[in-house]
Design goal:
Layout: H1 2-19, H2 23-40, H3 43-60, H4 65-77, H5 83-97
Length: 111
């Protein structure tokens, strides 16, 4: 339960860092969160984090964004349809329409 709670808190912290423009810190936190979710076999959580990581990488101009969005799609398509898959599809459309500088946190939603 400790890892699950840590992953959730770290995910929220990373989201806030991303919204504040602290993109390097957000990237580090998201990568750590992703590792925790993968360790737990939590594919939906990992997919959600990959969406957020894609946004951050997009804003940084990092080409790894292609890998992260593809991995998110692979993970979330294997799960029952849910809000994360909807967020991912919306994100794909929005990222196709925007430049890296305007792709702030618009693709994800947090409870």
């Amino acid at each position: 339960a400790g890892h699950s709670q840590r992953a959730s808190l770290l995910e929220r912290w990373a989201h806030q860092a991303q919204q504040q423009g602290r993109l390097t810190e957000a990237t580090d936190a998201l990568e750590e969160t992703l590792a925790l979710y993968r360790e737990q076999g939590e594919n939906v959580g990992a997919g959600r984090v990959l969406i957020e990581l894609t946004i951050v990488l997009w804003r940084l101009g990092d080409p790894r964004r292609e890998e992260t969005i593809t991995e998110a799609l692979t993970l979330l398509e294997a799960e029952p349809p849910g809000p994360e898959l909807v967020d991912l599809l919306r994100c794909l459309v929005q990222l196709a329409r925007t430049s890296p500088r305007t792709a702030e946190g618009t693709c994800t939603s947090f409870p």
